[in-house]
Write a structure and sequence with these properties.
The protein has 442 residues and is mainly beta. The chain contains 6 helices and 30 strands. Helix content is 11%, strand content 34%. The protein has a 26-stranded parallel β-sheet that branches. It comes from Tamlana crocina.
Length: 442
């Protein structure tokens, strides 16, 4: 009986540890990336456009499957109209005219694809490249931390003064609804602008928490894959793949929940400005924000950040690999049950942040899996991270540290058709050594 009790105890202990390990990073009983994602979009051919979208869409409009639509210049959904997009529709952004789609305050986009029939936004070029077209912009009435109750997006290259109202965002309605993006792919967006900045794959400016953002993949974006300026945003099952700039950037008082989401970076496409998987900031310039308003706050749960290097050590020496996470002054991050694998280092805190208990309680890393990173958590421009290691290394945070290759860490990341970025199951439960150990317990 004693032996049996001990065997059961060890079995439960090992099984419990396995469950705890498996629940880190992206999770799901099945690989939820199947069918709707495309990790080889450079090879996809959607044919030629059959219809053109240009100017303002000021009345309820439906884009139907079977047509291929071209965004010519800056296209705005205005006047409280709803743009409905059927599953399977392909919309191309025009390269020459900086095609983009903006859903203005009070208007909606209802882009609800299916797992087996996603909606695709892509480039109209034969040979597609990051930054071929502008991207998608949602403008809502939720708050920001800027002075006043509204701001304007200023990067439209063809915007005339009479259309400035179409670029406004922000207000007081946290429950504002800009519509639905579900089972949607956004490819090759992030057009470079004359001032050196970029569009993003998806910009969320003042977007409210009744907007549905689920199962969205942004790939090969030259700007940030997804950026939120203020707003109250909830995002689930989001994928950023081989983005040149930041994968997820939150700024200007954004209040965001990012859940069960993935960013796969390549050191060979990232720009040299310090691109991150996750950047959390509250301002670009202090004089632009109202400190009586909420600072940016992000809760990130079950996230996987992966750097896909062929030779990590060499890529780090060449300066091609940066930190996965950057937290700026006056911002909060609660990151838990997540995986950060193959970065240099895992996390950087802006050097304006004083390392004390009050600030560290606003920047939480719990039940994390830090794997194969060149250091874990540092303050910017400071190689001594002893205080941070002591703080986040405390057993109360349940953080785990490892030095495994990506192939050993994840289930199947080399499958070009259906990669699986969930954590690989620990082999200990099936090993002969464990069985032998169980049998010989006294």
């Amino acid at each position: 009986m004693k032996n049996f009790t001990q065997i059961i105890f060890i079995f439960l202990f090992v099984t419990g540890n396995l469950f705890s390990q498996q629940e880190k990073g992206i999770v799901g009983s099945e690989n939820w990336l199947n069918n709707w994602t495309d990790f080889k979009s450079t090879q996809s051919d959607y044919g030629e456009p059959t219809k053109i979208l240009a100017g303002n869409i000021a009345a309820n409009t439906t884009l139907v499957k079977g047509e291929v639509y071209l965004l010519l210049g800056s296209v705005f959904v205005t006047n409280g109209a709803t743009l409905t997009i059927e599953p399977g529709v392909v919309i191309m952004g025009d390269y020459k005219s900086n095609g983009s789609l903006t859903v203005t305050k009070g208007a909606k986009i209802m882009a609800s694809g299916l797992q087996t029939d996603p909606i695709v936004f892509t480039s109209n070029r034969t040979v597609k490249r990051a930054g071929d077209w502008g991207g998608i912009v949602l403008l809502g009435e939720a708050p920001t931390n800027k002075f006043g109750n509204g701001s304007a997006v200023k990067f439209y290259p063809d915007l005339v003064p009479s259309s400035y109202a179409s670029a406004n965002y922000g207000g007081e309605n946290t429950a504002d609804n800009s519509g639905i993006l579900k089972y949607v792919r956004i490819e090759f967006a992030g057009k470079r602008l004359a001032n050196g900045e970029h569009f993003n794959g998806l910009l969320l400016a003042g977007v409210g928490d009744t907007t549905i953002l689920e199962n969205v993949m942004v790939s090969y974006s030259a700007g940030n894959a997804i950026e939120a300026w203020g707003g109250q945003v909830n995002m689930l099952n989001i994928v950023s793949y081989r983005c040149s700039n930041n994968d997820f950037k939150f700024n200007f008082g954004a209040q965001c929940n990012l859940t069960n989401s993935l960013a796969v970076r390549s050191p060979y496409v990232s720009n040299s400005t310090g691109s991150r998987c996750l950047k959390v900031a509250s301002y670009e310039r202090k004089e632009d924000i109202d400190f009586s308003k909420k600072a940016t706050s992000v809760v990130a749960k079950n996230i996987t950040f992966l750097n896909d290097s062929d030779d990590l050590e060499t890529d780090i020496k060449m300066g091609l690999v940066k930190a996965a996470v950057y937290v700026g002054d006056y911002a909060s991050l609660d990151m838990n049950k997540s995986v950060i694998s193959g970065f240099n280092p895992a996390v950087i805190l802006e050097d304006k942040i004083s390392i004390n208990q009050e600030n560290l309680e606003k920047i939480k890393f719990t039940s994390m899996y830090f794997n194969n990173c060149n250091g874990n958590i540092f303050v910017e421009n400071n190689a001594n991270n002893e205080d941070l290691e002591n703080w986040y290394g405390n057993s109360a945070f349940f953080n785990v540290y490892s030095k495994s290759s990506n192939a050993e860490t994840f289930i199947d990341i080399r499958n070009e058709r259906r990669p699986d970025f969930r954590l690989r199951i620990n082999k200990i439960i099936a090993s002969n050594e464990v069985d032998q150990d169980l049998r010989t317990i006294d």
